[in-house]
Amino acid sequence: MTLTLRIENFDSLPDGGPLSVTSDGNDLQVGRSASMDWSLPDPQRHISGHHFDVSFRNGKYFLTDVSTNGVFLEGQRHRIEGAHELKSGERFQVGHYFITVSLGDAAVAAAAPPPQQVEPPQPTPPVVDDNSDPWAIGGSPAAPIDPNPRSDRSGFDDFASDFISTPTAPQPQAAPATAAPQPAAAPSPFGGSGSPFDGAPAPGAGPVLSRTPPTAPTALPIATPPQTPAQPAGGDAVLKAFCEGAGLRMPAGATTDPEAFARELGRTLRGASTEVMAMLQDRAAAKKFTKGGDRTMMGAAQNNPLKFLPDVDQALEVMFLHPRDGFMSGGDGLTDALADVRQHQVAVFAAIQPALIKLMSKLAPEDIEEALDGGLLSGGKRKAWDEFVRRWDKMTTSHENGMLDVFLSHFAESYSKATKGSGL
Fold first, then answer.
1. Lowest-pLDDT range, 197-201, 249-253, 305-309?
2. Could you name the domain of life of the organism this protein comes from (predicted)?
3. Which helix (H) or strand (E) is 21 found in, with range?
């Protein structure tokens, strides 16, 4: 049996490696390390060097998680424990990769059903005709036409077409005419469907007809009550819960459509989460560019899905639909992420001034002259020095904080140009 593991959420890997691995009964080692049978590159190092093993025993493949951060089956909150038998069509997550499982026998099993669908021959209708059942009436005349409706319709469409087809084929009515009057009474409501009088004696004629009327009334009550009176109550409950969660006071007499309200909340949440994830990525890029601060690493608990999951779909699913061990749930992820972004902004502006003061103090003419310890420059060097002092004094004389104010003035001008037209 052949096993294939394939990454489905990436078109290529950063190192140009393969997106899939195949085993013909061989064991596999998978992880971040280049020495693995299948290497999964991960600059964030969420994936362990040796993350999981695949073994082949008794004609079956088993996955064993040996990592720090775990292997998660789709829809499961907890990581895989022990040896897990792999099944075709399964989907699991390793770091930011989603991997699907394919087994070689899946194609053989899928090819078996079609011949079974072609097997039912046409000799079956004569047997059904003896029962004087409306289902038999729909089956016998529709023998040559049967392939078309089955390919185009299914379910309730086929059910209705059986009854509609009987008036178009009056020939089968000759057989009930030669038979006893009892079988003729059964097809009459269907053969004369256009007559209201033919439908009246039908309920007492056969048990099958008694099954048809109950389905109609049962469908009507289900469709009739659209829960119109219940909507205000449900809407009030949803609105009340929203106000409690948002710390707002419930407006007097306020009502809302719960479906529309929930849809708008979902749209708003997705938009906010998308922007927050982008800000977190910009924050990480700034820290990497300046080589300042420690990189956020994944821990054993309270990991923020907006930071560690690859896209907003997976982050929202973990936060609100399928909580996962080790990750924040609910609105805690958004709150934590926004707090980090705000702290990053404060830290950036707090670091600018001290850094510039430290830099400019080394370039101030008085500091340079002090460093020369009274030494004198001569010739061209002296002229260059005098020009430097003149320019420095010209830039700093009119500012209380010297060169720092000059920089902040240029910074404000550049910021204005960068944000012009962006709505900031």
1. 197-201
2. Bacteria
3. strand 20-23
CA–CA separation, 149 and 20 (whole Å):
42
Q: How far is CA 269 from the centre of its chain?
A: 14
CA distances from 300 to 141, 281, 328 (A): 68, 22, 11
Write the CA distances from 170 to 15, 140, 165, 328, 332, integer angstroms. 72, 12, 10, 69, 70
Gap between the terminal Cα atoms of the chain:
59
Amino acid letter, 403: M
Q: What is the pLDDT of residue 36?
A: 93
Cα–Cα distance measured from residue 81 to residue 71, given in angstroms and rounded to the nearest whole number? 9
Measured distance CA(35)–CA(43) in Å, rounded: 16
And the tokens for 390?
A: 């003149």
Give which of 93, 39, 45 is closest to 68, Cα–Cα. Answer: 45
pLDDT in tens, 121-151: 444 444 444 444 444 444 444 444 444 444 4
pTM score, whole prediction: 0.42
pLDDT value at position 38?
Answer: 95
Which amino acid type is present at position 303?
N
Q: What is the pLDDT of residues 270-328, one digit of tens each?
A: 999 999 999 988 888 877 777 766 667 777 788 899 988 888 999 999 899 888 888 99
Which residue, among 168, 173, 169, 170, has the nearest Cα to 186 in the 3D structure?
Answer: 173
How far is Cα 325 from Cα 78, in angstroms, rounded to an integer? 6
Q: Cα–Cα distance between 134 and 144 in angstroms, integer?
A: 18
Name residue, tokens 């036409």. 145
Whether 42 and 96 have beta carbons less than 8 Å apart is answered as yes
Classified as helix, coil or strand, 327 is strand
Say how many C-beta atoms besides its own lie within 10 A of residue 289's C-beta: 8
**Average pLDDT in the 79-86 region?**
92
Q: Which residues of 253-275 are buried (b: 16+ CB within 10 A; e: fewer)?
A: eeebebeeeeeeeeeebeeebee
CA–CA gap between residue 51 and residue 53 (Å, rounded): 7
Task: Determine contact, residues 19/9, Cβ cutoff 8 Å.
Answer: no
